[in-house]
Write a structure and sequence with these properties.
By secondary structure, the chain is an all-alpha fold. It has 5 helices and no strands. The chain folds into 2 domains: 26-61, no CATH class; 70-126. α2 (31-43) packs across α3 and α4 (70-95) packs antiparallel against α5 (102-126). The longest helix has 26 residues, at 70-95.
Length: 127
């Protein structure tokens, strides 16, 4: 009987959340950009922070600037120089003296084309 008479302690207030969001991310934007973001968040019936959070977590951002590392650019440049040198050698031998056999000239030209394709493949793969 004593248990019925005891008042139930209710602390009241908001219940505790499972995950507390206590981290902040600040960003800078122009006043026009701020108005646009606010309008888009309002259209989705979200707060600005919730809108930006969902946008950041669920959408993919396509990077507009694609740059290659300096080492890769140097490697591609070196391959281009080798290809140009082979082409110059082949032209020089073809124009002055018939030092190379037709088979050797064809092999040099083929090697030049392969190097050029290799440079293109590397560039396409890394971009």
């Amino acid at each position: 009987m004593e248990e019925k008479n005891k008042p139930i302690k209710n602390k009241g207030g908001r219940p505790k959340k499972d995950v507390v969001k206590e981290q902040r991310i600040t960003l800078k934007c122009s006043s026009y950009e701020k108005l646009v973001v606010k309008a888009k968040a309002k259209k989705e019936k979200l707060s600005v922070s919730e809108y930006l959070l969902q946008l950041g977590l669920t959408r993919k951002i396509v990077s507009k600037v694609k740059t290659l590392p300096n080492e890769v650019l140097a490697f591609i440049a070196e391959l281009n120089h080798i290809g140009v040198n082979l082409n110059q050698l082949a032209r020089k031998h073809n124009s002055v003296i018939e030092v190379l056999t037709p088979l050797d000239r064809a092999k040099l030209l083929e090697l030049y084309k392969e190097l050029k394709e290799l440079v293109t493949l590397i560039r396409n793969y890394l971009q």
